[in-house]
Amino acid sequence: MIVLKGGTVVGTEQRIADVAVDAERVVAIGSVDVGPQDQVIDCSGAWVGPGLVDLHVHLREPGQEWKEDIASGSKAAAAGGFTTVVAMPNTEPPIDSGQIARYVFDRGAETGLVRVIPSGAISLGRAGAKLAHLDDLWAAGVRIFTDDGDTVADSGLLRRAMDYIAELGGIVAQHAEDPGLAGRGHMHEGAVSSRLGMIGLPSMAETIIVERDIRLVELTGCRYHVQHVSARQTLDVIRRAKEAGLPVTAEVAPHHLEFTDRLVETMNPVAKMYPPLRTKADVAALRAGLEDGMIDCVATDHAPHSAHEKDVPFEEAPRGVIGLETAAAAVNTSVGLPAVTFFERMSIAPGRLLGLETGPLAVGSVADITVFDPSQSWTPGTFVSKSANSPWIGTEITGRVRATLLGGQVTFEHKEGASE
Amino acid sequence: MSLLTIEGLPAAEISRLLDLADGFVEVLDRPVPKVPALQGRTIGMLFYEVSTRTRMSFERAAKALSADTMTFSPSGSSVSKGESLKDTALTVGSMGPDLFVVRHASTGAPWRVAEWTGLPVINAGDGAHQHPTQALLDCLTVRQHFGKVDGLRVAIVGDIRHSRVARSTAQAMATMGASVRFIAPRTLLPFDVEGWPVETTCDFDGAIDDLDVVYMLRIQQERGGGDVFPSIGEYVNRFGLTRRRADRLPEHTMVLHPGPMNRGVEIDPAVADGPRSLVTKQVANGVAVRMAVLLDQLSGSEKT
Questions:
Q1: What is the average per-residue pLDDT within A384-395?
Q2: A191 touches chain B (CB under 8 A)
Q3: A197 touches chain B (CB under 8 A)
Q4: C-alpha distances in Å from residue B176, one per residue of B124, B233, B296
Q5: Could you report the per-residue pLDDT of A83-98, keeping only the tens digit for each?
Q6: What is the distance between the terminal CA atoms of chain B, rounded to a whole angstrom?
Q7: Which candidate from A190, A311, A313 shows the least CB-CB separation from B191?
Q8: At what angle do helices B11-29 and B132-146 cross, to 10 degrees?
Q9: How close does chain A come to B31, measured CA to CA in Å?
């Protein structure tokens, strides 16, 4: 038996209690007597809640294992308090058939540190021209479909995908970025891009795609998820869709809750991600949206790149930053959600989207558990991930994952001073 | 110390550099236009973009100060074998230059070279961002002609959006007290000039009567400037400095252009070569300004 001792247990309500885990399940919450054979984890001062779920990570396997692979990405996820991650399909080859999806499932299971669920491409080869093997992907266990990294720009193709995926019961997730408006933009289009002489990528490139897609949701009834919302105008569109009762959800990445396009002034490619960092007003709107639930969940968009790939002039650098190991602390620092809302946005809501058995921690729950100390400050420097392209390097953030359990097994335990 | 941007450089500092450059104009007029000020020093030139005048101007300036130069250009070099900017900068840096002059198509590249090598860097143009020595030579040229920059009305006309010259020269001239106006079609104006010391307009004809300096820019097709208006004919009609427009300028108004010029597009050949043109003066002043900046960067620092 594992006993999580003396933490604030975050169920439907919060109380200080011990949590006993036996085999795969939570077997007791309350005052638990510890036997000589039991493993005890001190949780005093920490929240003990359901394991975090990330709907949006890039594990780079197959094809770009030098950046990250499923084993190293799983380790990073466990260190960040995650028990389930959804792997994006922009691998080489892309996940556009059941065979490749099964490979990712199997590699995740072999590693055993986190549930790795692949998403499937919407279009064959992510080329935006023909439908991927959607039924084959569904049969392999894929539930979320996306061409992430690219938008499905062809409205007709997206409509057919939505019709097909609605029938299966899956979710279409969109990387919303109108290619015509986005052009060759390297950063948010605004005063900063104008001053730096960099080609800008306007907020409207995102909003216009979400607006269009929601019309297609009306037409097809398909469940639709907006990936990494970055612009306040997009949030207005999502709000209208939700108020109209459409099956629309959205995620936000931790970096969009903190940084603005001013970070690009450092010229450091660690500030380069898509969608790009936007303005203070966008950050404020995203924080409010996460608090009031218009944004359903946090997803990291963990995008590992090797140091030498990022150590180039800004405009030549690849897109993306890592986020798994800093997400919980970053959200806690930027938004400061109460415990129940924190686990709702980082665990329960994304778990619900995936159809997982995720809920408030209770006796009988699957023992996917995250122990998070919301008051411990630290400064990220080194990472478990193969990559270190993080905008939080050298920035103090507050909140530390103390332990992660997956199906009753400890997959991560923070040793003081071990990883900074 | 590096010279990466003109942004934030105070008027007194710009004036000091211009005064220094004025002295070198005189040096360059001597029968033997050479001084020993930087003897034994080596300037590393990293030119990642095609360049004629800026590269030659820096080389001429270095040699007039008796410095040695090492020039790197990517064609036929290790870059074609896949070497990164960082590795090239570190490699050339290991050969002992005292300073780098960097031109690169990406914004911020000179900042990165300074960070990687720890050497002073002069930005000789990064993307559409900055070109500080161009800004200084433009100020010098205007100051020589009018005796001042303060109070002059300057219009920069053409592809502002893709122009590092516009970004730098507007900033420098405004710091020196000029009032600066950008004139271009909306598709070639910067998206947002909030906080810039400039006005913007799309009406060249409406602005023409009250200008002291007209600074014409080339359309930078290579940076995407070419596909944002319907035709060259339309562009010339609205934004070209044609003879008809030049005739409408006040008598004292002077014309500048950073080169290379597209004659018959942004500027009529007769205007480019006419009595209002300060274009060749700009090129000559470029050498003096670069001498001033090189000396300023390296004086006081010991060879390490």
A1: 97
A2: yes
A3: yes
A4: 21, 36, 20
A5: 999 999 999 999 999 9
A6: 14
A7: A190
A8: 70
A9: 42
Going by DSSP bridges, is the β-strand pair A52-57/A82-87 parallel, antiparallel, or unpaired?
A: parallel
Q: Are B127 and A198 an interchain contact pair (Cβ–Cβ within 8 Å)?
A: yes
Coil, helix or strand for A216? helix
Quick count: other Cβ atoms within 10 Å of Cβ B134? 25
- Contact residues on chain B for A280, CB-CB shorter than 8 A: none
- Catalytic member of A96, A296, A301, A368: A301
As a whole number of angstroms, the distance between CA A342 and CA A259 comes to 20
User: Within a 10 A sphere around the Cβ of A337, how many other Cβ atoms?
Assistant: 19
CA end-to-end span of chain A, whole Å? 30
How many beta-carbon pairs below 8 A join chains A and B?
66
Q: Which of A187, A192, A196, A204 to mutate to test binding with chain B, by most B CBs within 10 Å of its CB?
A: A196
Asked whether the predicted pLDDT for residue A296 surpasses 90, the reply is yes
Nearest to A316 among B106, B163, B191 (CB): B106
Question: Which amino acid belongs to residue A357?
Answer: E
Name, in order, each residue with C-beta under 8 angstroms of B94's C-beta and a sequence gap of 6 or more.
none
Nearest to A312 among B85, B164, B167 (CB): B85
Count of beta carbons in the 10 Å neighbourhood of residue A7: 26
Identify each DSSP E strand in chain B by its residue range: 42-47, 68-72, 99-104, 121-126, 153-157, 179-183, 198-201, 213-216, 254-256
CA–CA dist B299, B36 (Å, integer)? 12
Name every chain A residue with its beta carbon within 8 A of the beta carbon of B162.
Answer: 197
Of A118, A171, A113, A165, the residue nearest A141 (C-alpha):
A118
Which chain B residues have a beta carbon less than 8 Å from that of A267?
107-108, 111-112
User: What is chain A's length?
Assistant: 420
A255-275 pLDDT, tens digit each: 999 999 999 999 999 999 999
Give the tokens for residue B115: 């960070």
